[in-house]
Write a structure and sequence with these properties.
The complex is a heterodimer of chains A (260) and B (267). With 260 residues, chain A is an all-alpha fold. Chain A is built from nine helices and no strands. In chain A, helix 2 runs parallel beside helix 6, helix 3 packs antiparallel against helix 4 and helix 4 packs parallel to helix 8. Chain B is α/β, with parallel strands linked by helices and 267 residues long. Chain B has a six-stranded mixed β-sheet, sandwiched between helices. In chain B, helix 3 packs across helix 4. Classes of the chains: A mainly alpha (260), B alpha/beta (267).
Chain lengths: 260, 267
C-alpha cells in the first residue's frame, strides 16, 4: 500500500516536473531578441520540412474526407428532400471541426513525429552538446525555428485541408450525385459566417499548431539518447499531441459555440 | 595571475545515489597538456561535461581563468564557451552540414569575417587534419576516424584557450592515432592553448602530456609528471597502468558469492 502511494506520488512529481521542463523550454526558445546571425534560412528550411512536406498527406486526406462527408450527408439529407443543404452541412462541419482537428492529427503524425525523431537523434549523437560547446544555444538554433515553422504552417495547412475537402465534396455531391450546383454554393455562402466559422477555425488550428509542435520539440529534447528512448519519445509525441488536440478541441468548441 | 587555466576544488557530482565524482581537486596548468587517465566509467567524460558546464556540480567550484563557471548564468556561459573547444568521442558533426560548413559553423556564428577569409581559415584547419580534399563530403560519407579529424578542425577553428579531447585515440587506426598525437602536440605548441586529454589509452596519452592525473571510481588515485606516475608504487595506479585484470580495482561488478549463486552446495 505504502509502495503504491510512493509510486503514485513519484509519478505525480515526474509529470509536474515534465510540465515544468516543457514550459521552460518554450519560454527559453521563444523569448529573447531575434538573432539575425541565424538568418531567415533556418526558418524557411523548417517551413519547407514541416509545412510543405505535410501538404501531400493533407491534400489527399482532405479530398477523401470531403468525398465521404458529401456521400454520407447526401444519403441522410435526400430522405428529407433537403439535399440542397449539402453545401452548408459540409462546409460548417469542415470549417468548425473536422478541418482543424483532422489536419492537426495528420500534422502530429507526419511532422510532429519527424521533429521528435530528428531532435532526439541530434541529442543521441552529441550534436546538441557540440552546439552548446561551440557557444550556440540549441534552444535558439534548433527549437525556435521548428516551433515557429509549426505554428505558422498549421493554420495554413488546415485551410488547405478545408479547401480541398470542399472541392472533394463538390465532386461527389454536385458532379456525381447531382445536387444543384447553384443551391450547393449559395447555401454555403448564406450560412458560413466569417467570424463565427472561418476565424474560429483558424484560431483552433493555430492553437493546435502551438500544442503539437511544442510537444514534438519538447519530447525530442527530453528523449533518452538511446534507440529505445527515441522510439518512445516519437510514440509519445503522436499520442500526447493527438489527445491534447482532441481535448483542446472540446474546450475551444465549448468556448466558441457553447450554449449561452 | 595564477599559472592555472582551470582550477577544480572539492568537485562532486552524483547520478541518483551513485557518486560519479567525489570531491576532486584538479589544477590544469595554462599552456600545458594535462592527461586525465582512468578506466572506462570512472567519470572522465562527466568531468569534461562539468568543465563545459553542460552539467552542474552538486558541490565544489570550477574556476576557468578566475571565473567560477558553475555559478554563471546561461547566457554568460554561451559567451564563455566560445573560448573552449571540445572534441567529442563520436565527433558530433552536424549531419545536415557538409564538412566545410561544419568547420565554418563557429566562424559564421561568432565572427563577422568576410567569406573569403572564412574559406581560407577553414581550408587551413582542414589541411592540418588532412581533410582539405574532403570538404564537400557530408558527415555520413566519412569513416569514424575522418569524422573525428573533421570535428577536430571544427574544435580548433576559433583558436580556443582550452581544448578538451574526449578519448581522442579510441577507434583510430595506428597511423591516425600517431598523426593525432603529433597534431595535439603541434596545436598546443603553435597556439599556446591549454589541453585536457581524457583517455584510457596510456601510451599515446602519456607520450605527449606534461602532467597526468589518474582517476578511479570518481577519485584521484595518482598525479604528477608522466615519469613519476608511470613509476608510481601505488597498487591501484600500477594495476591500471600495467593493465592487470584484477587487483585493487575489481574486475567483477559487485555480486553475491559465486558458489552460492551457482547453487553449488545444493547440487
Amino acid at each position: 500500500m505504502l509502495a503504491y502511494l510512493q509510486r503514485l506520488g513519484r509519478t505525480g512529481l515526474d509529470v509536474a516536473a515534465g510540465f515544468g521542463r516543457a514550459g521552460i523550454l518554450l519560454a527559453q526558445a521563444l523569448w529573447g531578441p531575434i538573432d539575425w546571425r541565424y538568418g531567415p534560412g533556418l526558418l524557411l528550411r523548417q517551413l519547407h520540412f514541416v509545412g510543405v512536406y505535410s501538404l501531400i498527406i493533407i491534400v489527399v486526406s482532405g479530398v477523401l474526407i470531403g468525398m465521404v462527408l458529401a456521400l454520407q450527408g447526401y444519403t441522410v439529407l435526400v430522405r428529407f428532400g433537403a439535399e440542397s443543404a449539402l453545401g452548408q452541412m459540409v462546409s460548417l462541419t469542415l470549417l468548425r471541426e473536422l478541418g482543424p482537428v483532422v489536419a492537426a492529427l495528420l500534422f502530429a503524425g507526419r511532422a510532429g513525429s519527424a521533429l521528435t525523431a530528428e531532435i532526439g537523434l541530434m541529442k543521441a549523437t552529441d550534436q546538441l552538446a557540440a552546439m552548446e560547446m561551440i557557444g550556440v544555444d540549441p534552444l535558439r538554433r534548433v527549437a525556435r525555428p521548428r516551433l515557429w515553422a509549426g505554428i505558422i504552417s498549421m493554420p495554413i495547412l488546415a485551410q488547405v485541408f478545408n479547401t480541398v475537402a470542399i472541392l472533394g465534396a463538390v465532386g461527389v455531391g454536385v458532379s456525381w450525385l447531382g445536387v444543384d450546383a447553384g443551391s450547393f454554393w449559395s447555401n454555403m455562402q448564406g450560412s458560413v459566417e466569417l467570424g463565427e466559422d472561418v476565424i474560429n477555425g483558424v484560431i483552433k488550428a493555430f492553437a493546435f499548431g502551438v500544442v503539437v509542435t511544442w510537444i514534438a520539440v519538447f519530447e525530442g529534447f527530453d528523449a533518452e539518447p538511446t534507440p529505445e528512448g527515441i522510439s518512445t519519445a516519437t510514440t509519445r509525441t503522436v499520442v500526447y499531441s493527438s489527445l491534447a488536440v482532441l481535448a483542446m478541441d472540446f474546450l475551444l468548441t465549448a468556448i466558441m459555440f457553447g450554449v449561452d | 595571475m595564477s599559472p592555472n587555466c582551470l582550477e577544480l576544488r572539492g568537485l562532486s557530482f552524483s547520478r541518483g545515489r551513485r557518486a560519479i565524482l567525489d570531491s576532486l581537486d584538479i589544477d590544469i596548468p595554462r599552456g600545458k597538456i594535462t592527461a586525465i587517465l582512468g578506466p572506462s566509467g570512472c567519470g572522465k567524460t562527466t568531468l569534461l561535461r562539468l568543465i563545459g558546464s553542460q552539467l552542474r556540480p552538486d558541490s565544489g567550484s570550477i574556476r576557468f581563468e578566475g571565473t567560477d563557471i558553475s555559478r554563471l548564468h546561461r547566457r554568460e556561459l554561451f559567451v564563455l564557451r566560445e573560448r573552449m573547444g571540445m572534441l567529442f568521442q563520436s565527433g558530433a558533426l552536424f549531419t545536415d552540414l557538409s564538412v566545410y560548413e561544419n568547420v565554418a559553423f563557429p566562424l559564421r556564428l561568432h565572427t563577422d569575417l568576410p567569406e573569403s577569409m572564412i574559406r581560407d581559415l577553414v581550408l587551413i584547419k582542414l589541411h592540418a587534419v588532412g581533410l582539405r580534399g574532403a570538404r564537400d563530403l557530408m558527415p555520413a560519407e566519412l569513416s569514424g576516424g575522418m569524422a573525428r579529424r573533421a570535428a577536430l578542425a571544427r574544435a580548433i577553428i576559433l583558436d580556443p584557450e582550452l581544448i578538451m579531447y574526449d578519448e581522442p585515440f579510441v577507434g583510430q587506426d595506428p597511423i591516425f592515432a600517431g598523426v593525432l598525437r603529433d597534431l595535439i602536440k603541434r596545436i598546443n605548441e603553435a597556439m599556446g592553448g591549454t589541453c585536457i586529454i581524457v583517455s584510457h589509452d596510456i601510451a599515446e596519452t602519456v607520450a605527449i602530456s606534461d602532467y597526468v592525473y589518474v582517476l578511479s571510481a570518481g577519485k584521484i588515485i595518482g598525479q604528477g609528471p608522466p615519469e613519476a606516475v608511470m613509476n608510481s608504487d601505488d597498487p591501484r595506479v600500477r594495476q591500471f597502468l600495467q593493465g592487470l585484470p584484477d587487483g585493487p580495482v575489481p574486475f567483477h561488478y559487485p555480486a553475491p558469492d559465486y558458489r552460492s549463486d551457482l547453487r553449488v552446495e545444493e547440487a
